[in-house]
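Dissemination and training. As part of the outreach component of the grant, students in the summer workshop were shown how a complex can be specified as a set of sequence lines and then modelled as a single object. The example used during the hands-on session is reproduced here so that future cohorts can follow it. Participants entered these lines:
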Amino acid sequence: MSHRYDVLAVGNAIVDVIARAEEAFLEAEGIAKGSMRLISAEEATALYAKMGPGREVSGGSAANSCAGIAALGGQAAFIGRVSDDQLGAVFAHDIRAAGVDFRTPPATGGRPTGQCLILVTPDGQRTMNTYLGSCQELDEDDVDEERVRASAVTYLEGYLWDPEAPIRACRKAIAVAKAAGRTVAMTLSDVFCVEGHRADFLELLTGPVDLVFANENEAKALFRTTDTEQAIAAMARAARLAVVTRSEKGAVVVEGHARWDVPAAPVSRVLDTTGAGDLFAAGFLAGYTRGRPLPECAVMGTVAASEVIEHYGARPESDLVARVEAAFARV
Amino acid sequence: MSHRYDVLAVGNAIVDVIARAEEAFLEAEGIAKGSMRLISAEEATALYAKMGPGREVSGGSAANSCAGIAALGGQAAFIGRVSDDQLGAVFAHDIRAAGVDFRTPPATGGRPTGQCLILVTPDGQRTMNTYLGSCQELDEDDVDEERVRASAVTYLEGYLWDPEAPIRACRKAIAVAKAAGRTVAMTLSDVFCVEGHRADFLELLTGPVDLVFANENEAKALFRTTDTEQAIAAMARAARLAVVTRSEKGAVVVEGHARWDVPAAPVSRVLDTTGAGDLFAAGFLAGYTRGRPLPECAVMGTVAASEVIEHYGARPESDLVARVEAAFARV
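and obtained this result:
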């Protein structure tokens, strides 16, 4: 079945505000290191005032994945809601300039474009404080059925499972993709999302979702275990195809009784881990939609993730295709 | 004479939009590599649409210098006009978070905050396309006389010599500083500025300005020579104290018949030269206001400049004090 897009993703349209921070700052603010949490406009203003100088870079989990897929030569489209403001213009510019088809009209007159205040500690770990803003105004009308049908994979981020309207948008995208015989993929996004929407996520995984991405903490939270191997085994039973990412330990792909373990790609320096999971998904999906064997898809994921760890910001800055080719040349 | 600020700077309040670009892109757009040019709102919109994904980082020449002075432990204040918009909030946050006293109220309802679209080629050279926006609305009322009098050095950027209102602000700052027996410093900023305001700049240099910063191209343009040594000699005759920066060739300080040549500081990689001149001025002024000998001030300038070249963005990201200490330990 021919398709126009390899991957169409639905996600939060976010601009990241990245600042370095010491561990002591996180402690003083009572923010759990490495986590993602949702904050109100007032909390965002208060936290921003205390943060160091920032840099603004377009982000959003599924949007970062789209940028990675495009950087790897794939055709990607993104659906997400910015506002009609300067940061919305920045988001729209950056994703289009990355080669991603983005047409969702901006919200007008309401909340500003979503922002993620990211504190990066000296060890490269990122702690995310997200003000969703206009992301909450994404609704099912924004999901263009014709484009979903024209996409080999429809990819959803678990972060959307918070306000009602974006969930409706996801459910519509799933229904249209399934009716068209397309693949539905999703990421569990964060332990916070898994704990808040565990029943929904399990239903999706055992139902319409064909391919799921989770890191080991998310997998453990989903199956209420503290044991990674138990979580992987449970994932293999629940999902048709699943990938569990394990940071410096690489990734595990499970499909029924089959399992492949892939090591992490070498990293020259760990500067900012923001987007590592998003770029893993990008590399995997870029391989998957080209029909590459599953362990090769996972290698592409680890290589794409390794690039984004080496600099601030969650979108690729150097030649991902060359990096993937070099990785396969080493094998 | 005691003072509250080591340096009070008046400059354009700009947010940089930094994107990588190939040489061919500059050629196709007819933009001279390495230059600074002023563009209209329409030109900015058209160029931005063609640029690659960007990162937004606070900039502005004198503002960058203030951030550097603060990073070196100095007391810095900045006067410049943002607009009451998201990028204006970014600029205000970043300069305050850098430890710089910034109080100029934002403009409301008019032009947006100034932006500099910076194209960085693979050799690390930066080409700047500046839309001044609300910077043009800086006026003499924004120059707080009490704060000028409380500053050891009042520092002005040549970039301000374009619209009438900012020039009035500069002239007021100069008059107040001189009346209070303070030091007035300025940077010639760009060949474009020198060529447009040559007579004004010569009058300032031979008149109220006590300390002038220029790179070798600006010095050559000012004295209409193609010979660097002739330009340096002319600078020594015209100015009371001058520093001519020469990129990888280091810097030359001239004061009357005295001259000191200082080599460039080692750089691990040349990623983005934006802000190198601004940080040179920061390092020099930080030393100068602490009464260090002139060649040591120049070494501090080269060290501060070397840090900012190694990453994208024109403000320091690592510990400048440690870097300066390491440089003096090597001597």
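Chain B has a mean pLDDT of 96. Students were then asked to discuss how this feature might be tested experimentally.
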